[in-house]
Every structure is written in C-alpha cells, then in structure tokens.
Amino acid sequence: MFVPFSWQRVLWRVALVYSPLFVLGMFTGYTLEMCLLAAVIHIVWMYTQQHKLLDWLYNQRKLSPPHGSGSWEPVFHGIYNMLKRRLGRERELAQLMKYFRLGAEALPDAIVVINQDGAILWCNQLAQGMLGLKWPADAGQHLTNLVRTPKFVNYLRKARFDQPLEIISPVQSNVWLEFRAMPYSQQQLLLVIRDVSQLRKLEKMRKRFVSNVSHELRTPLTVMRGYLEMLDQDEVDPMIWGKARNTMLDQSSRMENLVNQLLTLAKIESASVEDNRETINFSSMVGNLEAEVTGLAKGKQLSFSFDIAPDIEIKGDREQLRSACGNLVSNAIKYCGQPGEIHVSLSLIPQGALFLVKDSGPGIERKHLQRLTERFYRVDKARSRDTGGAGLGLSIVKHALQHHDSQLKIKSSVSKGSTFSFIIPRKLFIQQ
Ligand code: ADP
C-alpha cells in the first residue's frame, strides 16, 4: 500500500545515506569530512529530484509524473492526484457548459449574456442573426457599440428591467424585437430577445379591425338616429316619413348584412380545417347558384352563361364553399356594368376542379389586386357602399378557400373585366 508520508521512513532513509560514510569516516579518521560528503551527496540528490519535478510541471505536457524516489515519491504522487482531480472537475465543468450552450441554442429566443459593463460574454446563434453579432469575434465587445438604438442604450443604462423593451431590429428594419433583461449569476445580465413582429402585426390588425367595424356601424346608426330625431317634431310630412322609413330599412339591412358577414368570417376563421368535411356534389352546388342568380340580377341588364362539368364530388365544408362561390358570383353581379355579361364555369383540369367567374365589368386597377382580400378593403368606397358592400366578401372567400387547400386567383384589366377563379385540388376529390 502506498504510504504518503512517514517520519520513520524519512529517518531510515537519512540513516541509510549517512551511516555508511559515517562508519567509513570512523575507520579512516575522517568522520567530519565523510559526514560533509554525505550531506553534499544528499543535497545533490535533493536538487536532482526537485529539477525532475520542475521539469515535469513546466516543460512537459504529460499528466503522468516522472519516477520519484525516496521522500519525493509521495510529493510527485500527491501533485499528480491533485492535477487529475482538477482535470476531472474541469471536464465536468466543460460538459456542463456544453449542455448549457446546447440548451440555450435550442431555445426559440435569442440569448446574450453580458457583464455589468455591458461587454458580451456569450450569445447564441439566434442572437447573431437577430442582432448581427459575430461569435466569437464580438466576445468582450460592448453590446451598446453593436446595438446602438438610443432606446436600448437607455434601457441598459437605467437598468429598470421590470418591463420589456421593444425596438426595431438593428439589422432588419421590418422586424420588431422585444428585449427582456434578467440579472443572472454575479453581476451578469441575461438578455432574452424575441421577434415580436407578428404579434405587433396582429395587434395592429385587431385595432384596425375594431376601428373599421365601428366606422361601418356608425354611419348607418347616425342616419337612423337623424331620422328618429325628426320624428320628435309634431308634424312630419308623409312623403318625408316614407323616404325616412325606406332609408332606415335600407340602413338596418346594411347593418344586418355587415354583422352576418362578420359572423361568417369569424366562423370560418375559427373552424378547424378537418372539422366539417363532408361529401359535396360540387357540380350541383354550382348548378344551384344558377337559380339564385336570377333573383339577384333581377331588373339588371346582365346576360349569364353557366358551363358546369357534371358529377364532381369532393370532400369539403359545404357552407364555406357555397359562401365562396356565392360571393364571387354576387360580386360579379354587383360590379359588372350594364349591359354586361357574366360567365360562370366549373371544369376538370389536371390539378383539380376549376371554378371561374368572368365578368365584362369595369375591371380593377393592378395596384388594388394584392389587397382585395384584406378585410374592409374596397376599391371605390362610395360605389361599394352603394352596393351594400363592406369589403368583407373576398376576405371570406380567401379564408374559405384556405380551408380547402386552395387559393383565390384574380385577373383583371381596366375596362376589360375581371376573372376570379380557384382550383379545388384532386386530393379532395372523392374519386381521384
Ligand atoms: P364588398 O363587400 O365591398 O363587395 P369584397 O371583399 O367582396 O367587398 O370586394 C372587395 C372590393 O373588390 C370591392 O369593394 C370591389 O371594389 C372589388 N371587386 C370585387 N369583385 C369585383 C368585380 N367582379 N369587378 C370589379 N371589382 C370588384
């Protein structure tokens, strides 16, 4: 068994070195000289061992110690054990750091760790993309030198981290970033950065939606209120009263129409795609539109042609598809000038079933085409209002088609007419 240190052994070894020369000195009469010689030999041996130790510690890169003899053996062995333990701990620490970094890389947010002076200690891959940092080149750089937005610089300076900060990304002007800072370990700050552009967009949409709905409801309500106030007067001319009554009826049906469209939109948006899929005879559904159209176009100089391929059966949401097709046909009737022609067709093409509504109306300028499916978007607000439209019809069409893996296509040229179409893909056919 290895004994690290024992006085007994030390004394035994010293005796082993000194006693032969001491005895020789006694016999030869040079006791003192022989003792001195033994001491010199002992010192030289000690320095040799010390040299071995220093050479191992400073010049050699290997962990295993040189062979130490005598009382130096436990010294070498002790240092070796200490180094081994430290190396083991370092390895554990490195492994822990690796796990921490892998974990931080796997997070959906960007992470930057800075010290109390704002110097970057570490950042993950996402932070490099979001903030334009370079790792490890930017290690030790002051974060405020790289993200110079004054609001951000102030945020770090004031160190009031109870509220997050939102700023535009320093590398992409259309991206909004939210910074959350958390004091982390000793005098370090953990910054968690998240792309909130989508949230901001949704919030903006929500506000615009509420303001649009209020605006659309306010106009008819103001008109009705005006007429109702008129009724307070003692005598109302029956002619004026007749007109007021008609206008109020008109405005109330406009409001009803708006509320119905909003409900339809909300229903379509919240329905899950697979929810109400049933077998639909798409050909019959489009065929039924032909009968409905006659009522809608009553008194208008419009000529219709329907060309419907028979027996197209698909899986889909009946109400949503009827709403999509109905909106496209009723738009054609609403916006097609008179006299005008409207052609509705359902045909089989290699990709699926193509539904198409073509009119000979005034057409739509190119700049509007992209935005037509936005809620409340109307090309000509005054004209659209005359027809009772609130700009929700095509938005309903878009969402209904999305639930059927389809997309609305609009082709239009000014004074030549418009074509609205979509394809129901073959994967939704009952028999492919
Ligand atoms: P609205 O309820 O106002 O009709 P839509 O969302 O259905 O709203 O349509 C949006 C706008 O697109 C309409 O206001 C109209 O200006 C334009 N539009 C839709 N269909 C046609 C068409 N067939 N011809 C010309 N313009 C159209």
From TrEMBL:
SMART domains: HATPase_c, HisKA, PAS. The keyword Acetylation does not apply. Member of the two-component regulatory system PhoR/PhoB involved in the phosphate regulon genes expression. PhoR may function as a membrane-associated protein kinase that phosphorylates PhoB in response to environmental signals. It is found in: Cell membrane. This is Phosphate regulon sensor protein PhoR. It comes from Agarivorans aestuarii. The lineage of its organism: Bacteria, Pseudomonadati, Pseudomonadota, Gammaproteobacteria, Alteromonadales. Keywords: ATP-binding, Cell membrane, Kinase, Membrane, Nucleotide-binding, Phosphate transport, Phosphoprotein, Transferase, Transmembrane, Transmembrane helix, Transport, Two-component regulatory system. Residues 212-428 form the Histidine kinase domain.
